[in-house]
Amino acid sequence: MAAAMTEKISFFDELELVGHAPDGVEGVAMIKQENPDLVLMDIQMPHMDGIDATLQVKSFAPHVKVIITTVMDDNEHIFHAIKAGADGYLLKDADPGMLRDAVLEVMEGGAPMSPNVARKALTLLRTGAEPERHSSDRDLLSSRETEILKELSKGSVYTEVAESLFIAPSTVRKHVENIYKKLQVHSKIEAIDLARRKGLF
């Protein structure tokens, strides 16, 4: 994606590319460092997908505009990208002119979307139905890990979680480490937010 986007951006002098990253983790780190006005975010990336990366970016830099640029146009990805805070959603077949218009529109407060995506987004809005989660999401955490995360979401500390579930604090800590690895997050707040967004509890 990076090479294709770089080529499209190069057509327009008013758009300056400050960097690109090979995966979501590096992308989030680069955004923290560079503080760009706007990010073109792919969904399919190693280590952290674009939806989770968007959620993280919006948590520490809500002013940064994020346009999803992807081949994924199914209801599930559209719904979760918008819910994560994406400001626009373009399919990768968008030509350079459409990309430029989308960038200018989003910087003026708009929400650019490819026509097919816009139709699906409106349908989701009208029906109010959240797309069904994939089984991979439902099975992401074990029942014990889900219990622990629920307790943490209530504001409980490790010792309180341990007492509530009749396990040792060290066991709670180990489960939390596994939760972080499975969800690819680095803090309790991120884990809780992501688990809620995925409908894990």
UniProtKB/TrEMBL annotation:
Q: Does the record bear DNA-binding in its keywords? A: yes
- State whether keyword Signal applies: no
Chain positions found as 4-aspartylphosphate: D42
Instruction: List the source organism.
Output: Phaeocystidibacter luteus
Question: What's the protein name?
Answer: Response regulator transcription factor
Under SUPFAM superfamilies, the record lists: C-terminal effector domain of the bipartite response regulators, CheY-like
Pfam families in alphabetical order: GerE (PF00196), Response_reg (PF00072)
**Residue ranges of every copy of the Response regulatory domain listed in the record:** 1-107
Could you tell me which SMART domains the record lists for this protein?
HTH_LUXR, REC
One GO term in the molecular function aspect is: DNA binding
Name the source's superkingdom.
Bacteria
* Classification lineage: Bacteria, Pseudomonadati, Bacteroidota, Flavobacteriia, Flavobacteriales
